[in-house]
Amino acid sequence: MARAASLRLDFRSDTRTVPDARMRAAMAGAEVGDDVYGDDPTVALLEETVAGLLGTEAALLTPTSTMANLLAPLAACGPPGTPGTPGTPGTPGRRDRPPRG
């Protein structure tokens, strides 16, 4: 238990974590592919595992919080042009702008 208490993880940025020998070995030995085309087995396994844990049909890895913050409201709105889609009248993006004049 003492080891867990002394272990400090900092997830603010990927530039703050320096990989150790085990991490480098795992990266060097990993099977890779292009997740844009759906052929990265590691990403596919992660998405499948998370979907199973959440009880959803599928999951999507977003490598950055900015990407996730953009996708969440878009996914909730429906197809482009439907009421509530960002950028259409009455959406939060329009109400949050300062008044003109």
From TrEMBL:
Q: Which UniProt keywords apply?
A: Lyase, Pyridoxal phosphate
- List, alphabetically, the SUPFAM superfamilies matched: PLP-dependent transferases
Query: What would you give as a GO molecular function for this chain, any one?
Result: lyase activity
Write down the superkingdom of origin. Answer: Bacteria
Aromatic amino acid beta-eliminating lyase/threonine aldolase domain segment(s)? 10-79
Gene3D superfamilies per the record? Answer: Type I PLP-dependent aspartate aminotransferase-like (Major domain)
Q: What InterPro entries does this protein's entry cite?
A: ArAA_b-elim_lyase/Thr_aldolase, PyrdxlP-dep_Trfase, PyrdxlP-dep_Trfase_major
- In Swiss-Prot or TrEMBL terms, this protein is called Beta-eliminating lyase-related protein
Q: Which organism is it from?
A: Streptomyces caledonius
